[in-house]
Design goal:
CATH topology of the largest domain: Rossmann fold
Number of domains: 2
Strand content: 25-35%
Oligomer: single chain
CATH superfamily of the largest domain: P-loop containing nucleotide triphosphate hydrolases
Number of strands: 14
CATH class of the largest domain: Alpha Beta
Radius of gyration: 22 Å
Largest sheet: 9 strands, antiparallel
Helix content: 25-40%
Order of helices and strands: HHEHEHHEHHEHEHEHEEEEHEEEEHH
Length: 475
């Protein structure tokens, strides 16, 4: 997964993000007029914030995370939500679990026979999205009002509806809801998406629907829904798939460890993006098998500053920040909308790296762009996101600076024990290099890609293939 955080240490609370953190609207792509209106509204809200709770909602002083748990039927979401809630509360977070909207309908009188009415599927999924969005936003507001580190754990997210509709119906529903920016819908709202694979895939003897009265899928149907749900979230930069390769307790522990890393807590596993150099740019039509679903993005990365001096009494020897615009493309190249984010990277005297990420608005991105580090290129990449054998992959194809040509790097998500960590030299796109170039680090590489070799953490690979190094303008 791109740009994963590597926590330096934990002192009771995760590191706060810089500035005010705003969620990206799912209604449409932002315009300057809309952003100006948002700023005016924020100023008015701050002026009217006469209580502690209202000031917290407006200023957002504490770290906040929204995490989706999704997957096919009988994947373990109910147990996982309970485990994560207890784990996070015991470590100082305030947690609210957002229930699955469709289950709310089913437990309050909705019957599957209603689908016998022509056009009911569209009405139901539209209602589910509306209800889910309202619940998520309301719970977020309540937690932010507390002014303490908080987590909303969502039982499914807004993209899950795509698994229960064909593409034409899904596009029609988004059109009716005036949702033009699918990129913001998928990744502008959530810090991470954790997919728990159905027990019908790899743990068949444990497959059961007894704990959910509104689910009726056979094992075959469950596997099909699981695949569609995974495909719906392809493109989210922190999509993690938890399969049934271990027993259920092992599956939960992997989930807990990944969550711990996300929020800045000590973890036994470190999810990193092992990198591989590709020999050539892949041809989507000719190289990708038809069963492999993918999403394509254009990414613009703008570096803001680079501080290499160590302040007195500080263990930080280097700090830099960048903002990113991530634009989703349809297959004909048409732009579907953008999401924006900022990452601050700090390197300590002992060589460890910590990243702080936040979602920002288009207006903030444009303002940051005007103050960019003039000694660095604006890095532009085409990125292809896909899943293969339940592993998440991203291909980064550099388009600018032109000096690197069609450089292609495959990022493969892998798990590594923190007892044997890699030795990263930088954060951001450079944090993921493996210390040794031998083997594939447990990654099942897609056979349809022409892989040259695995990249390492040595200075030569860092200089040639690390985005931070590539961005430097030669004097």
């Amino acid at each position: 997964m791109e740009d994963q955080a590597v926590p330096v240490k934990f002192d009771g609370h995760p590191s706060p993000a810089r500035g005010r953190d705003r969620s990206v609207s799912v209604v449409s792509d932002h315009s300057d007029d809309h952003e100006a209106a948002v700023e005016r509204q924020a100023a008015a809200e701050l002026a009217a914030a006469t209580t502690e709770a209202l000031r917290n909602v407006t200023l957002r002083p504490s770290p906040f995370y929204k995490i989706v748990l999704t997957g096919g039927p009988c994947g373990g979401k109910t147990t996982a939500l309970a485990r994560l809630s207890s784990y996070l509360r015991e470590r100082g977070f305030e947690v609210i679990t957002c229930p699955e909207a469709f289950s709310i309908l089913g437990s309050n009188g909705f019957e599957m026979s209603y689908f016998g009415t022509e056009g009911m599927a569209m009405v139901v999924q539209d209602t589910v999205m509306q209800l889910q969005e309202s619940l998520e936003d309301g719970f977020e507001k309540i937690l932010r009002a507390r002014g303490k580190p908080g987590v909303v754990l969502c039982d499914r997210g807004l993209m899950d509806g795509a698994a229960y509709m064909d593409s034409e119906e899904w596009d029609e529903m988004l059109k009716r809801r005036n949702i033009k920016n699918v990129c913001a819908l998928r990744e502008g709202r959530y810090n991470a998406v954790f997919h728990l694979v159905t027990a019908a895939e790899g743990a068949e003897k444990f497959y059961s629907l007894e704990n959910n009265e509104v689910r009726t899928e056979t094992p075959e149907e469950a596997r099909a829904v699981d695949v569609k749900t995974r495909d719906a979230w392809i493109g989210h930069p922190r999509l993690c798939v938890f399969d049934n390769s271990t027993n259920f307790e092992g599956k939960l522990q992997r989930l807990v460890d990944t969550t711990a890393q996300l929020v800045g807590l000590p973890a036994h596993l470190s999810r990193t993006a092992t990198k591989f150099l590709l020999k050539r740019r892949p041809n989507l039509r000719e190289d990708f098998p038809p069963e492999i679903k993918y999403n394509v993005f254009m990414v613009e990365k703008v570096y803001l500053y680079d501080e290499s001096s160590q302040a007195s009494g500080s263990d930080i020897i280097e700090e830099y920040s960048f903002v990113r615009k991530r634009t989703s493309l349809c297959k004909d190249g048409h732009r579907l909308g953008s999401a924006y984010g900022q990452t601050t990277v700090k390197r300590t005297v002992d060589g460890q790296v910590v990243e702080v990420k936040r979602i920002i608005s288009r207006r903030e991105y444009v303002a940051s762009h005007k103050n960019r580090d003039q000694s660095r290129h604006v890095v532009k990449q085409k990125r292809i996101s896909f899943l293969f054998n339940m592993q998440s992959f991203n291909i980064h194809i550099y388009e600018e600076p032109s000096s690197v040509g069609d450089l292609c790097i495959l990022h493969a998500q892998a798990e590594a024990s923190t007892s044997n960590p890699s030795s990263p030299a930088k954060g951001g796109d450079d944090v993921d290099f493996e210390a040794s170039g031998t083997g594939n680090a447990g990654v099942d590489l897609p056979p349809f890609l022409d892989v040259d070799r695995r990249l390492t953490s040595n200075k030569e690979d860092e200089k040639m293939y690390g985005a931070f190094s590539i961005s430097r303008i030669d004097e």
